[in-house]
Amino acid sequence: MRFSKLYAPTTKEAPKDATLPSHQYLVRGGFISQVGSGLYNFLPMGKIVFDKIKNVVKEEMDETGAQEIQMDVVTPAELWKQSGRYDVFGKELCRFKDRKENEFVLGPTHEEVVVDVVRNRINSYKQLPLHLYQITTKFRDEARPRFGLLRGREFTMKDGYSFHEDEACMKKEFDVMEKTYTKIFTRLGLNFRAVEADSGAIGGSGSKEFMVLAQNGEDDIVVCQQCSYAANIEAAKRAPKTTTAEAPEANLSKFKTPDIVYSYSPLVNES
Question: Can you give the pTM of this predicted structure?
């Protein structure tokens, strides 16, 4: 195809709600177009970039032996009720009913579905470990979509799920995935840090996030300059106290303050 035939509708003006340079350039350059709040279409040039990123992720994941699958975006609400997360996600979980009044959700993540995929189908430890992943559409009903593709309602996410016979096997796979994600972010040329994180509604005993360092964003991280420790500010832990020094004491003394009027307001704690 000739470049003159490329559909790339550029604009001189940035959208009024585009506060980040990345959002402005993607729209003005004809990579994406906004169809609604937090909803974007990928135009030809945007789709080319999207596919290149997706291919890098797929190549590195396949190299580890993980197997790609495709799960439905529409999920029976019953699976979420079984896990107990139907109410945990709150209003971010988009719920709807079909014509027969059956309840469904638009998947914001797929733990419930992937468990349904493998349960009663793995009959021996010889089938483990098993790692399944997908690169597909997710939907979260964000209260305030913003920052273009960084905080949208509909988005594409790579999510992987592994199954193991014991904790040691699980930790080994966790380390493999950390190395794999490091390769992916390095190949994409990003300045990033892997940091300790809060698992949130996803759950679990441990979590790490790969944070791209940028001037604009919603998260803060803390980094130790003397070791490799780094963490999201919400999950950061301080080192144990090492000093035995006692707190300094003030040298107090009484002195007269004639003609001074004191006043105070009582503190009341109601609970």
Answer: 0.81
